[in-house]
Write a structure and sequence with these properties.
3-stranded antiparallel β-sheet, 2 domains, hpI Integrase, Chain A, mainly alpha, globular
Length: 361
């Protein structure tokens, strides 16, 4: 389905295509993937832009942080971003605007930014994300000559966070989840899609029968735009064999609608909890997929062909543990065995008595 479009059953039980982005919503009447459909879709996108330009135009004081944020959302720098990136960045900026929106941008100094970030020490990830968003927002303020220099740059630092990111699933954890959720359940299908395609949850929830081509699934990653052709693993084929073909996506809510990324993530954590697997996430299965390929001795290029990572450095972050174990095995196995050495020199007597020779005299 195109971005912002999802099937929506009406009160008569008929499924219609609904375009919804933010507060803007409309129905698309033409059949999917026809020329008329795409014309309606482009008109809906234009409607979003027009609605966005009107929202708040008379409420925010010129020169305020809120007015700056609104102008930034209409700028080419923001509009050119991928929708997933827009959603995350706008969420961060909007939360900041709720507390600092009326304040004038010109009065924001470096010491203020440091104080704002420092006050978020209990939430270092959120603090670093806010600092990154503020740097971009205030770069825009410099570009439009609202301020002369960016107070969020030059001496303002975020928090150092010692983390390995999402936890990769072990084989025992995968087995425990499969035991708790047998084939035929949504929970098992979700795991199979995540583990045997190696894709992000936002891509998995958009997969459907229309993406199946023979024994492969065609994927275009929402985050990177990368196009992948992924072979359907036997375990995934078994899970799909128990999936009905009446929906546009493999995974649907209890009401038959496609998932949002956040909604699916929350439900998947509930499925993990029911299996007694606390602290695990959908993204951990993506790491597990890369780890499995690494454990099989495959190259980083082959892993990259599964995950779709843009650089090999990103793949290495996923497979570092597996690489370490493999290299350690090779290193340990290369050490000479004492028994082998003695076998090669059978006439050499082995001294069992460790008493110094001088003492024996």
């Amino acid at each position: 389905m195109p971005l912002h479009v999802s099937p929506a059953p009406d009160r008569h039980g008929k499924t219609r295509l609904r375009f919804r982005k933010g507060l803007y919503s409309t129905y698309l009447h033409a059949p999917l993937d026809t020329e008329e459909f795409w014309q309606e879709y482009q008109a809906a996108l234009a409607g979003v832009k027009a609605a966005t330009q009107r929202i708040g135009s008379t409420r925010h004081k010129p020169g305020s942080i809120a007015a700056l944020a609104l102008a930034y959302y209409q700028s080419p720098e923001f509009i050119g971003l991928r929708d997933s990136t827009k959603a995350v960045r706008r969420g961060i900026i909007d939360r900041f605007v709720k507390t600092a929106g009326p304040d004038p941008v010109r009065m924001l100094e470096r010491k203020h930014v440091k104080a704002i970030i420092g006050a978020m020490s209990s939430k270092p990830h959120a603090a670093n994300n806010l600092l990154k968003a503020l740097r971009l927002l205030l770069d825009f303020a410099v570009d439009i000559e609202l301020i002369e220099r960016n107070p969020a740059r030059g001496g303002v630092k975020g928090f150092k966070i010692g983390t390995k990111g999402f936890t990769s699933w072990s084989e025992a954890q995968i087995a425990a989840y499969e035991k708790a959720h047998p084939i035929g359940t949504r929970a098992r299908l979700a795991m199979a899609l995540l583990l045997y395609t190696g894709q992000r949850r936002g891509d998995v929830i958009r997969m459907g029968w229309q993406h199946v081509q023979g024994n492969r699934i065609a994927v275009q990653q929402a985050k990177t735009g990368a196009r992948l052709s992924i072979k359907i693993h036997k375990a995934l084929a078994d899970a799909l064999a128990h999936t009905v073909r009446t929906n546009l996506t493999f995974l649907v809510t209890e009401k038959g609608a496609p998932f949002t990324a956040a909604g699916f993530g929350n439900l998947f954590r509930e499925w993990c909890d029911k299996a007694g697997l606390h602290g695990l996430s959908a993204h951990g299965l993506r790491k597990a997929a890369a780890r499995r390929v690494a454990d099989a001795g495959r190259s980083t290029k082959q892993i990259q062909a599964v995950t779709g990572h843009a650089t090999l450095q990103e793949v290495e972050l996923y497979t570092r543990a597996a690489d370490q174990a493999k290299l350690n095995d090779e290193a340990i196995d290369s050490m000479p065995d004492r028994s082998d050495r003695e076998h090669n020199f059978p006439n050499r007597k082995r001294r069992l008595d460790k008493t110094p020779r001088k003492a024996l005299k």
